[in-house]
Amino acid sequence: MTSSRGLWSGLVLAGVGLIATCYGLARFAYGLFAPRIADEFRLTAATTGLIGSGGYVGYCLAIGLSTVATARWGPRRVAVAAGVVATVGISVVAAAPTALVLAAGVLIAGSSTGIVSPPLAEAVARWVTEDSRDTAQTVVNAGTGIGVLVSGPVALVLLDQWRLAWVMFAAVAAAMTIVIARAVPGGGPSAERVAGERPVDHGRSVDHGRPAGLVRLLAASAALGLASIAVWTFSQQHVETENPVRWAAPVIWTIIGAAGVVGAFSGPLVARVGVRTSWSGLMILLAVGIAGLGAGAGIVAVAVLAGAVFGASYIALSGVVLVWATRLYPTRASLGVGLAFFMIAAGQAAGAPLVGLLADRTGIAFTFSVCAVLALAGSLLSLGASVGARPSAGSGHPDGR
């Protein structure tokens, strides 16, 4: 299929919308409404974290299947399946009569994020030109921030009517499923990539067998998931507890999402300074944001600033992971992204119940400090790593810049 700017720009916009739905609404919105959900079902912090981990467990279970399915059936069918699963999962949460059904809905909804990333990464790799591909991948990925941004004002208006909010989210998910079905081109595993693109040979990063640097990428991805989970699960509860201003928690959540849109620029950042430097610097910023939210939740200005730093750095870091993965697997983007994003979710799935237990025993503020230290440690993981080569019309550049 011959690519055109109109085709791939429509693809990217639809991809942003589906990512916003699956990540921002189906997965992360649980943390936004966790205080009200916990009150209704009388959940402890540990139980709240355990249920929240279901979304990440669902992700881990789904992403392997999605990677295989994308290779076999093509991106469009699998992307549509992600939208359907998100719609079903959100609907189950909205109607949940018991904590057990709630947990099932959270797991189903979270599974949509595992399904959605591989087909969208593959679609961008197939139908976006090489010189725009890194940017397109990170723009689609920044849809997470948009989803979080949208859910914040909804919570502000419907703070005590969380079920109605989730009904609205389900309607959005159904609409985005229709949009993505129209935007992603058809084509199975034999579909052409962009016309005129040359075969890729990136030396050390050739993607047959295990590429050099894969273990470091997976460890870094897990560190991102583990370090970030306290904010995604307990930031709203922490701000509500520490801050007397009623609107502070949903506004800070909205700021996290708005700042996350900045993550769309992580592609150009990687192109300018390289994967290694981008990763280390952004992980340090992530640690600052987590620590700031933990220590400054009671001061609106501090919490807003910390939330902005966290949101921008988290989404940018997931964009760096995406670019890093597609460079290690230049001809099998869905596989590289699937492995890396699996590890992000695995870190979050393992971390959610652990931070819940830690919060019950030591307090949420201390738990945030522990996660900030983990982020600082994770900043070292890109040092000396093989990170693949930047796509170019000419030969590869194995320095990772």
UniProtKB/TrEMBL annotation:
Keyword set includes Transmembrane: yes
Membrane topology: Multi-pass membrane protein
InterPro entries attached to this UniProt entry: MFS, MFS_dom, MFS_trans_sf, Proton-linked_MCT
Keyword Transmembrane: yes
Start and end residues of each Major facilitator superfamily (MFS) profile domain: 10-390
Keyword list, A-Z: Membrane, Transmembrane, Transmembrane helix
Record-linked Pfam families: MFS_1
Transmembrane regions listed in the UniProt entry: 7-30, 50-71, 78-109, 164-184, 214-235, 247-270, 282-306, 312-330, 337-358, 364-383
Subcellular location: Cell membrane
UniProt protein name: YbfB/YjiJ family MFS transporter
